[in-house]
């Protein structure tokens, strides 16, 4: 019997061995099938899976790592540009411990068999396009890292999240999650890193977080959390990073945070926190960066701040702090960034500030500071941004600043500074932005050699400088030059024509004399030219008519004479002209900006008007009395000839005016009575109403009619407002290189039609797909310039309304062309405003379309240019989610995770500029309209920083000034 039992046992063992060998072989075959199934489900444009073929062992495939038993242990396919839906097979590998598919283009929902990988320890699906809810159901018992950040996942955080008991890293940031944080999360006692930033989470931050003693990092910024910061967070003694920014947190900062002795980074900016800075915070000796800005904090900044010996960044701006800047700041050896702007600080800047610090950025603007600028402020030799404007600082500009070779951006305007500019100050090599306007600075500036090769913006206005103007400022990159309201005399230097990048020149309110130099017309990019309130003489150079983008021209209060060059009225971009109080004579041009010129802009001359509609207040040319005897006899002698010539001119002029006047026409096609208004004489000769009606339904169609290409937008079956002709007249007169011309408008009882010039190109959404960083940058600047023109140069201001990609045409030269329409057309809401993601959130409250709503739409366009994502995608959920996502990306500073994939190669050399443009985009999309910049500032900023290396330290936040 024993022998029989022994044999049976041996047979059982043999059977088990055979079964195990068979199972292992089957498992290997199954893993091969699973991998091939994965490959089939994904698109692989880079060929990263080219060696995934059955003839080779899958353990040798790229992205596959096997264990000692030749089973799949790791799948590592990060950043391979893979797309497609994620197959369920990914979670069927029995031995896989790590799956990394981050930084791809995968989409769809995360498979429901998420928890089938019982051996899984690491899962990273971040930076894809996954949608749907977070996986529900059972957990993965060994999982330690779960990273699903930067997708478009919606819904709530599962209540059973606490069952993932071995998790150390949870990152759900950059999604569209809603609801509150489940209290069960406190059951994950092993959790070290918790990131829920940039979602739409609400409610209070759970006090139960205080039970998670191993937490090292908490990042919950860019949500809608409310209530107070829990005292219990102060029990997390392992915490080194706490970020709760951009929420609606209220109350005072808890005293208990002073117990976080390992805390290095504390970010609480953009909340509604009140009260003083808790004294306990100054016990945090390891603190590196402290940012409490944009709150309602008050009280004084304590001298105890000297205890934070490791502090590198201190940002307390936009609060209600009072008192003096603590002297203790001067003793912090590692301090690099100090931003205290927009508070109520008084007294002097600490005498030794900068002497023992390592300052790179100092911004104390918009306070009530007095005294002098400390000599020691650039002692480190690394200071590149110095912002002290709008205080009451006096004395001279410190001599030490003249030797501060690291300076790049200097803003000292609107103080009480005195003295002269030192010869060294005008030779700073890296300064690209210099504004010292609105002070009491004096002396000549032409005696100094200006050698500032990086200079783009120079503002010396409203000081007491005198003497002649320098022949050069040592820079060919100057874009804005403002020397107004000083005592400069002499002539305008001819060398100014060499400033090929100049866009704005202000020399008004000086004592300049002589003629306007012809060379000025070589500045082909000038948009605004102000030479008013001087003693200039001679005639207006006819060459000014050749400046292609000139929009504002102010020559008032001078000694200019002669006739107005007729071609000046043909400058299409010219909108505002002021020639008052000179000695001009003759007739006023009856074209362009002179058609509807205000009387105050021409008064004080000897001009007459030949226009049919006299808005200038000038007498008609035909009624002027010719008092001179010689003129009378000359007229008699040449009467017949003059009469014939004049009659011919009048006929031509009247004919042209008639062509552009409102006409009533009955269509031969639909039998309706139409009113048609032309805004272009060439179009009035070559296009008929039947031509327009024959084109068909609009938006993308154009027609060649008498060699005139047009684009027609039909608005049928809508109630055309009574203000149609008034509003469309304003749009029809617009001439700007970044705005599409409206050639004509039609109106009947059944609807309206707008006729545009045809622009060969693609709308922004289509064009962006293949555009490099440089091309996108050019498009952004073009749109900004168009907005600046519409908002600042048109009177009244013109607002776009729906500033969406379909409104922007990108032509063959990568110039952006904005197509306008009446804001009241095509509306869907009861208040007459378009329902679109590109309008500011305030529009839903019926606050009306404004400059700030246009700026919000422009901010969204910038985000789209930078990331390739747009706010109209359904996966983003609420309209504002793309802004939240962008804020999260920007604050994390992981450029490669959010920049458009096609631009990643460009990002290596343009990282600072791309980050700065995102900074502009986020300012433009501020939820409060008042916090958004104006179009003028946006255009200046984009024009300036794209040619510089501003904010070059890669800091997470840069001063808005």
UniProtKB/TrEMBL annotation:
Localization: Membrane
Main subcellular localisation: membrane
Transmembrane segments: 629-654
Keyword NAD: no
Swiss-Prot/TrEMBL keywords: Leucine-rich repeat, Membrane, Repeat, Signal, Transmembrane, Transmembrane helix
InterPro entries recorded: DNA_repair-toleration, Kinase-like_dom_sf, Leu-rich_rpt, Leu-rich_rpt_typical-subtyp, LRR_dom_sf, LRR_N_plant-typ, Prot_kinase_dom, Ser-Thr/Tyr_kinase_cat_dom
Gene3D superfamilies (alphabetical): Phosphorylase Kinase, domain 1 (3.30.200.20), Ribonuclease Inhibitor (3.80.10.10), Transferase(Phosphotransferase) domain 1 (1.10.510.10)
Domain Protein kinase: 687-946
SUPFAM superfamilies, per the entry: L domain-like (SSF52058), Protein kinase-like (PK-like) (SSF56112)
Extent of the signal sequence: 1-29
PANTHER family: DNA DAMAGE-REPAIR/TOLERATION PROTEIN DRT100, LEUCINE-RICH REPEAT-CONTAINING N-TERMINAL PLANT-TYPE DOMAIN-CONTAINING PROTEIN
Protein name in UniProt: Protein kinase domain-containing protein
